[in-house]
Amino acid sequence: MANRLADATSPYLLQHQDNPVDWWPWSPEAFDEARRRDVPVLISVGYAACHWCQ
């Protein structure tokens, strides 16, 4: 699964560009999509260790 972080400028976001998660960067489009799908928005606070990295 590709996500939308490949064009990010943040080194933190770029670390997660190949994760098998449908990540979206903070943007109006991300919130529009969440509203359209009626799903919650989960926000990462920058913790870089995760299941996919281990």
From TrEMBL:
Domain Spermatogenesis-associated protein 20-like TRX: 3-54
Signal peptide residues on this chain, from the entry's feature table: none
InterPro entries according to UniProt: Ssp411, Ssp411-like_TRX, Thioredoxin-like_sf
Coiled-coil parts of chain: none
Name by which UniProt lists this protein: Spermatogenesis-associated protein 20-like TRX domain-containing protein
UniProt source species: Dactylosporangium sucinum
